[in-house]
């Protein structure tokens, strides 16, 4: 009997089996000459169908004696080569003679695998290669089995080689040799087949040949026509027959072209060359070459002579003796512009950072034909340079050269230089420099006017150095100096950082109203010192007639504000101040009014009512006008009497005539209206018919306690200086000042249509003003709700000089 390894075999026990279940007592299977059964069936104690089955260690679970088959079968699966041999089946009966049956089993070992190897003995499978067109191919196929298998080579269904040999190791080998590969072998399948029995399917292994092929043709499909220099052109070249697809190279003379795109389809390759002809391309041979890189002699070529109409071609270079890496500040640099043009250029120019350069010997720029000279170059001359030229075709420009100028470190502008710091408070200071080369060594020092202290604890990153500084005592404040060094030299001017004690910000300044409409007012100021800290700006808007806070605005950047939605025709007081983490600055106040609404013309004219405040103001102004007129009349009368001589009449000094308000003894300073002038001071002195000024000539009619002194008549032959003052309010209310001669009082109190500027407005209705200047004797008239005016006496007469109204910005 024959069996195939790893399959199954059924060995019959061809003995007679009686019909009774109890006829057989024992069945034993033996292999070879061994006296030990390999399989046992023990039915001595019962029915054969309930007998016990035993196998040895060799068969194990692979064997089973099937009693249901006729004849009964010993089934072995899977069969191994070691199962080969002589088998004996012995049957012992209860009442009959023992029977035996013998059979020889042969186990065939089919080829397990077919192995294909190349000429170097390397195992190959699948697609192999690629091989070159015309090469020789050598392959071998190996297989082993028992008995020896047949190993053959096939191409599709065609037998290529049926001869094989057996090695001493029992391996069967078939060597296939193809002397010359050609296009027909491309992607052909070669199969090695091994078989040693018809009981099993032959094993096989296949490989597919990949072959490199040379291109068959190449041609430029674009029409040969003249080209214009500077104008982009596209040329097309096509090649076919190559595997892999042909590599197409474009050549302009001996120059290999770039900017090429490819399209591949099967064995056809299309290449497109996009380039811009130059003047050197005129009468140059342009070719398209297609080849397969794996072949040394596979190139095919097509080409033609190109004709180029061109602009000037420029090439910019540094002078022959100049090393680009050694240029530093103070060096002389020159550029050469090499020109090739047809026809020749009519002009040559130079550009720096895209802007035209002109010859200027004062700044060291000299242009001579095709040469640019930069004398004693500075770092500001770093950048891109190029030359331009033009002929009848047009204008052309050269490539750019970036000029690098090495220089010692300098401090970068725009850095924060003032730092407000409390004692024991840390601040991070960043020192940035500009330098080339940028490999720097930094130094720090503190100058506190007493000594210079070197600092060593800082970090450096390229052109930036950072230090964390903390003043511990008052000597820790001063100026931190930061400077650096590179291979060019040391920084000439250090970067200075002022370390000052942090404090409240200073008030804003130069405030003005930029624009005002019926509902909007724009205000802009100039920021004061921020106290060394970040500051914000605030605006409080007070409605003067209603005595209320109208709005509050904040600007985190600049003291500029636009106040909207204001009522028209209303006066407002604006208080501006700044704020930092240390506190608030003094406020600066100014006034402005929104424009009134346009008047409506109607048939009936209604007279506007007079408010109580306006009535009081009119009363005050009227009283001041009467006082001024009376004073002028007295002064003129006195002057007229003096001209008559001492013998003509007695001198009557009416200049010191008190007002009715002044002689009212029933009034007290705490109960008087603030709009009433409470005191009058007359101070005059005569010497040789003229006016004498001095510290002894100034007297005051005010007693310093809010009440007037007794009036004293002073003889005088000239105009005196009259001042009216109101004592300072016990609650801190102060007023604007008006000073002048007696004859000018009437002019000083005239009402004006211009808006009144106030310094500050609070809930107590306090308006703070600062006068432009005081008179020589510091004698003033303090009048509430008036604008400041000053008057200058003349030697031979009295002229009223009214200062023009200015907006008053007052620190509050």
UniProtKB/TrEMBL annotation:
<dbReference type="InterPro" id="IPR003961">
    <property type="entry name" value="FN3_dom"/>
</dbReference>
<dbReference type="InterPro" id="IPR013162">
    <property type="entry name" value="CD80_C2-set"/>
</dbReference>
<feature type="domain" description="Fibronectin type-III">
    <location>
        <begin position="504"/>
        <end position="600"/>
    </location>
</feature>
<dbReference type="InterPro" id="IPR013098">
    <property type="entry name" value="Ig_I-set"/>
</dbReference>
<dbReference type="InterPro" id="IPR007110">
    <property type="entry name" value="Ig-like_dom"/>
</dbReference>
<dbReference type="InterPro" id="IPR013783">
    <property type="entry name" value="Ig-like_fold"/>
</dbReference>
<keyword id="KW-0472">Membrane</keyword>
<keyword id="KW-0677">Repeat</keyword>
<dbReference type="InterPro" id="IPR003598">
    <property type="entry name" value="Ig_sub2"/>
</dbReference>
<keyword id="KW-1133">Transmembrane helix</keyword>
<dbReference type="InterPro" id="IPR036179">
    <property type="entry name" value="Ig-like_dom_sf"/>
</dbReference>
<keyword id="KW-0812">Transmembrane</keyword>
<feature type="domain" description="Ig-like">
    <location>
        <begin position="1"/>
        <end position="91"/>
    </location>
</feature>
<dbReference type="Pfam" id="PF07679">
    <property type="entry name" value="I-set"/>
</dbReference>
<protein>
    <submittedName>
        <fullName>Synaptogenesis protein syg-2-like</fullName>
    </submittedName>
</protein>
<dbReference type="InterPro" id="IPR003599">
    <property type="entry name" value="Ig_sub"/>
</dbReference>
<dbReference type="InterPro" id="IPR036116">
    <property type="entry name" value="FN3_sf"/>
</dbReference>
<feature type="region of interest" description="Disordered">
    <location>
        <begin position="684"/>
        <end position="707"/>
    </location>
</feature>
<feature type="domain" description="Ig-like">
    <location>
        <begin position="215"/>
        <end position="307"/>
    </location>
</feature>
<keyword id="KW-1015">Disulfide bond</keyword>
<feature type="domain" description="Ig-like">
    <location>
        <begin position="111"/>
        <end position="208"/>
    </location>
</feature>
<feature type="domain" description="Ig-like">
    <location>
        <begin position="312"/>
        <end position="404"/>
    </location>
</feature>
<dbReference type="Pfam" id="PF08205">
    <property type="entry name" value="C2-set_2"/>
</dbReference>
<feature type="transmembrane region" description="Helical">
    <location>
        <begin position="613"/>
        <end position="634"/>
    </location>
</feature>
């Amino acid at each position: 009997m024959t069996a195939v390894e790893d399959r199954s075999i059924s060995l019959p026990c061809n003995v007679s089996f009686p019909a009774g279940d109890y006829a057989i007592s024992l069945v034993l299977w033996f292999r070879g000459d061994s006296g030990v059964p390999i399989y046992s069936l023990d039915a001595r104690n019962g029915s054969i169908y309930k007998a016990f089955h035993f196998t040895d260690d060799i068969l194990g679970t692979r064997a089973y004696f099937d009693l249901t088959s006729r004849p009964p079968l010993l089934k072995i699966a899977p069969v191994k080569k070691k199962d080969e041999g002589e088998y004996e089946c012995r049957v012992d009966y209860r009442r009959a003679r023992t029977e035996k049956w013998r059979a020889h089993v042969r186990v065939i070992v089919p080829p397990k695998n077919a192995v294909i190897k190349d000429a170097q003995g390397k195992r190959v499978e699948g697609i192999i290669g690629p091989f070159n067109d015309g090469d020789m191919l050598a392959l071998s196929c190996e297989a082993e089995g028992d008995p020896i298998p047949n190993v053959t080579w096939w191409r599709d269904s065609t037998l290529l080689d049926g001869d094989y040999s057996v090695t001493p190791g029992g391996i069967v080998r078939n060597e296939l040799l193809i002397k010359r590969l050609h296009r027909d072998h491309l992607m052909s399948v070669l199969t090695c087949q091994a078989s040693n029995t018809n009981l099993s399917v032959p094993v096989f292994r296949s490989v597919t040949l990949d072959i490199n092929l040379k291109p068959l043709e190449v041609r430029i499909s674009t029409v040969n026509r003249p080209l214009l220099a500077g104008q982009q052109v596209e040329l097309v070249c096509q090649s076919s027959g190559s595997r892999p697809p042909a590599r197409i190279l474009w050549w302009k003379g001996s120059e290999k072209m770039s900017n090429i795109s490819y399209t591949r389809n099967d064995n056809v390759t299309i290449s497109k060359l996009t380039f811009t002809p130059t003047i050197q391309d005129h009468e140059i041979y342009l070719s398209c070459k297609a080849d397969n890189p794996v072949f040394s002699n596979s190139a095919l070529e097509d080409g033609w002579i190109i004709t180029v109409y061109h602009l000037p071609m420029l090439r910019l270079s540094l002078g022959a003796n100049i090393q680009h890496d050694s240029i530093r500040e103070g060096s002389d640099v020159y550029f050469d512009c090499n020109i090739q043009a047809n026809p020749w250029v009519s002009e040559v120019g130079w550009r720096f950072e895209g802007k035209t350069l002109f010859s200027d010997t004062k700044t060291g720029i000299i242009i001579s034909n095709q040469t640019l000279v930069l004398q004693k170059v500075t770092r500001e001359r770093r950048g891109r340079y190029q030359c331009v030229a033009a002929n009848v075709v047009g204008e052309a420009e050269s490539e750019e050269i970036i000029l690098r100028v090495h220089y010692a470190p300098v401090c970068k502008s725009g850095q924060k230089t003032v730092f407000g710091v409390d004692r024991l408070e840390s601040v991070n200071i960043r020192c940035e420099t500009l330098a080339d080369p940028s490999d720097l060594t930094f130094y720090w020092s503190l100058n506190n006017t007493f000594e210079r202290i070197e600092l060593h604890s800082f970090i450096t990153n390229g052109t930036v150095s950072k230090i964390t500084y903390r003043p511990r005592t008052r000597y820790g404040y001063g100026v931190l100096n930061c400077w650096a060094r590179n291979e060019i030299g040391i920084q000439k001017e250090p970067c200075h950082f002022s370390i000052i004690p942090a404090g409240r910000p200073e008030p804003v300044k130069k405030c003005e109203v930029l624009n005002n409409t019926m509902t909007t007012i724009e205000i802009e100021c100039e920021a004061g010192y921020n106290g060394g800290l970040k500051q914000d700006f605030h605006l409080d808007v007070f409605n003067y007639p209603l005595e209320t806070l109208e709005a509050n605005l904040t600007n985190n950047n600049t003291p500029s504000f636009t106040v909207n939605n204001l009522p028209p025709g209303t006066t407002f007081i604006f208080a501006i101040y700044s704020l930092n983490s240390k506190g608030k600055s003094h406020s600066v106040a100014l006034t402005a009014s929104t424009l009134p609404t346009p008047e409506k013309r109607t048939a009936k004219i209604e007279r506007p009512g007079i408010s109580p405040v306006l009535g009081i103001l009119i009363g005050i102004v009227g009283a001041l006008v009467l006082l001024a007129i009376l004073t002028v009349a007295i002064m003129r009368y006195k002057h007229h009497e003096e001209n008559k001589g001492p013998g003509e009449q007695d001198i009557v000094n009416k200049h010191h005539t008190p007002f009715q308000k002044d002689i009212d003894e029933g009034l007290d300073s705490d109960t008087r209206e603030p709009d009433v002038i409470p005191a009058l001071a007359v101070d005059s002195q005569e010497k040789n018919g003229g006016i004498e000024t001095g510290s002894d000539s100034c007297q005051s009619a005010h007693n310093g306690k809010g009440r007037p002194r007794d009036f004293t008549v002073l003889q005088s032959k000239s105009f005196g200086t009259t001042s009216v003052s109101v004592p300072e309010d016990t609650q801190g209310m102060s007023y604007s000042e008006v000073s002048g001669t007696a004859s000018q009082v009437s002019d000083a109190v005239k009402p004006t249509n211009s808006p009144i500027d106030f310094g500050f407005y609070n809930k107590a209705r306090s308006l703070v003003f600062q006068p432009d200047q005081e008179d020589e004797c510091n004698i003033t008239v303090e009048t509430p709700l008036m604008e400041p005016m000053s008057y200058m006496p003349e030697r031979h007469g009295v002229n009223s000089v009214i200062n023009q109204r200015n907006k008053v910005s007052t620190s509050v």
